[in-house]
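Notes, Module 5: Reading structure tokens.

Key idea: the token line is not a picture. It is a compressed description, and you learn to read it the same way you learned to read a sequence, by spotting repeated patterns. We will look at two proteins. The first is printed below with its tokens.
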Amino acid sequence: MVALLPSATIGEVKFERGQKTDERTGRVEDGFVPAERLDRDWAPSTAFLTVGVDDNNRGQMMTFRSTSWGGRFAFNGLATMYWRLGQHAFPIVYLDVTKKWRNDQEVFDPVFRVIGWRPREDFAELGFGAAPPALEGPSAAPLEAKPAADPEPAAALIDDIPF
């Protein structure tokens, strides 16, 4: 599947008696920053759209959604690669799991295995065409050469040390 990361939302959700009762989420690409710490009874929320590329799911839109820290960490790893590449290509991934032990319990966390990249422009018809503009770099104004005030600056460093 191709992960359409501009669609990603992160944040937190609250569950009471197994039902979602509140949600504080926003799109990453819009600059939303989730809380650093979650209040009691809140869980991390991570979601993004994908497009199937295998023979059985080609072109099918799907959603990856997780309310676990494992899902958030898997997303963060994928998003970091995407942002380092300048948001110009989307990762082609398959969803895998890793088995870990936490608090004496076996836990299965999602992992996105990147097998390739597709240009962002390939998904323009879905509204994901051009990458966001890059930040401007510093101005490249030429430096002005200034002559040295003292042709022999080492002579100015000779002084008496009184000990």
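Here is the second protein, with the sequence above and the tokens below, as before.
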Amino acid sequence: MAVDTFTATQFEAVLPRHKETGEPLWQIQSQSGPQDRELVYQIPVQGSVRIIIRSSINRQTGISADAGEDSIRVYVVDAMSKPVFGKFQAYITRAKGWDVRLLAMLKRNYKLAMMVGAQCPNCKPGRVVVRISRSEANPNRPFMTCSGSPDQLACGFFQWLEEPVLAAKGQGKGGKK
């Protein structure tokens, strides 16, 4: 599989901008850690929740690696930079069409990040927790469930957040967590 090479300018053209002003909704994250060699972008979502995008673009040259296993990685983090949904995100390969796949993943993650800490629609004082299914029947499928509140136990609320990507023959839209 051929790997697409792109510049920081080409990459940033794919990232979201404000609809009215055209201003970037993202910022380049300062250097901090093992990703120091690559450009890392962040998109604030709500409160301390944000989307992190590791680009595979070299900070010094402004160009993505021309070969190797470098991929684009997208995940949602909290105030402590801890992934909110664990390690469910797949890598976005830099093969042709990476820009379309990146935009689709950003939209998905933004939608999920907006639900972090939302009020439970069933019991109201409880807060929902967004989780990612690890089951064989629904791999990587996000759902939300009630986490309860300091004054009450979880009410048992459960809701899938996306339709299954592929359902096996004879299976409906339901499924196991």
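Summary for the second protein:
- Confidence is low (pLDDT under 50) at residues 167-175.
- Residues 8-113 form one domain.
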